[in-house]
Write a structure and sequence with these properties.
Elements (H helix, E strand, L loop, with lengths): L1 H36 L15 H8 L1 H34 L5 H9 L6 H12 L4 H8 L13 H25 L3 H9 L4 H29 L3 H7 L6 H10 L4 H30 L1
Helix pairs in contact: 1-12, 2-3, 2-12, 3-7, 3-9, 5-7, 5-10, 7-9, 7-10, 8-9, 9-12, 11-12
Family: Belongs to the binding-protein-dependent transport system permease family. CysTW subfamily.
Organism: Devosia neptuniae
Membrane topology: Multi-pass membrane protein
């Protein structure tokens, strides 16, 4: 009993620095954000009166419904295509026996070494009216006028897909790395062709990794600000850009806090769905 109490006390002391850091860096800012969202003070200070006006604005203003819809559409589009494009790359990197496998894996995740802002500016150059794609199409006489690939929802989606693909590749690689190769060999010995092995063995068993990739990409996509702002040219309105605008342009911090909490509610809902889907797969 004494040993157990001593062990428990030691664990609490070991946990204490982490709990303090978590409280200061996460819990206190979240409490301030919650208080600010109910405040009448312009900067969300505790001296303001309590009010539901900010949430009333978010709920009853059609503009914010469009922003929430845009955010979900943006997040789902980026997630779908990022996972769809990343899966074959991760599968190839898992299965290849090439001596360059390590180098290829490093190249697949190398974009993470570059800032997302830099890559966004790169996409502005590629997709712009005088960019590489439009320049090539016009040089080949395939189009007379530039195709609008930037300063809109499409450009913001394309750029964000490429920016988040390394995260999806890493998550799917982790899922594929846990597969038991003997199951595939057994299926092949029983007469299953490669497609059946993939469809009946590899794909179902890799779904936990795919779900993790989807969760990671979705959360990063809907919380993104720089890429929608720059690639959208001020025409793409998602929750990330609106929180920034309310906090820095109109200086309406309580409304920015209410929008940030709406984003947090979406995060929480997605995580709950992810946990349930993961539990269903493991059942």
């Amino acid at each position: 009993m004494t040993d157990k109490a001593s062990h428990r006390g030691l664990l609490l002391w070991l946990l204490l620095p982490g709990l303090l850091a978590l409280g200061v860096s996460f819990v206190m800012p979240m409490l301030w954000l919650l208080r600010a969202s109910f405040s009448t003070s312009a900067f969300g200070g505790p001296n303001g009166e309590w009010t539901l006006a900010n949430y009333s604005t978010v709920i009853f203003d059609p503009f914010y419904w469009r922003v929430a819809t845009n955010t979900l559409t943006y997040g789902l589009s980026v997630t779908f295509f990022a996972v769809l494009l990343s899966y074959p790359i991760a599968l190839f990197l898992t299965r290849t026996t090439s001596r360059w496998r390590g180098l290829l894996t490093a190249l697949a995740i190398a974009p993470l070494l570059t800032s997302g802002v830099v890559r966004t500016y790169g996409w502005m150059v590629i997709l712009g009216d005088r960019g590489v794609i439009n320049g090539s199409l016009q040089a080949l006489a395939l189009t007379d006028a530039p195709i609008r690939l930037a300063n809109n929802f499409l450009g913001a989606t394309i750029a964000m897909i490429e920016i988040l693909m390394p995260y999806a590749i890493l998550a799917i690689l982790s899922g594929l790395g846990r597969l038991n190769a003997q199951l595939e060999e057994a299926a092949a010995m029983l007469g299953a062709n490669r497609f059946k092995v993939f469809w009946r063995i590899i794909l179902p068993l890799s779904l936990p990794g795919v779900l993790t990739a989807a969760l990671l990409v979705f959360v990063l996509a809907i919380s993104g600000f720089v890429t929608p702002r720059l690639m959208g040219g001020g025409r793409v309105f998602v929750l990330g850009t609106e929180v920034f605008s309310e906090a820095t342009v109109t200086l309406n911090w309580p409304l920015a806090a209410a929008l940030a909490l709406l984003l947090l509610i979406i995060f929480s809902s997605v995580i709950i769905l992810y946990r349930r889907a993961l539990r269903a797969l493991e059942a």
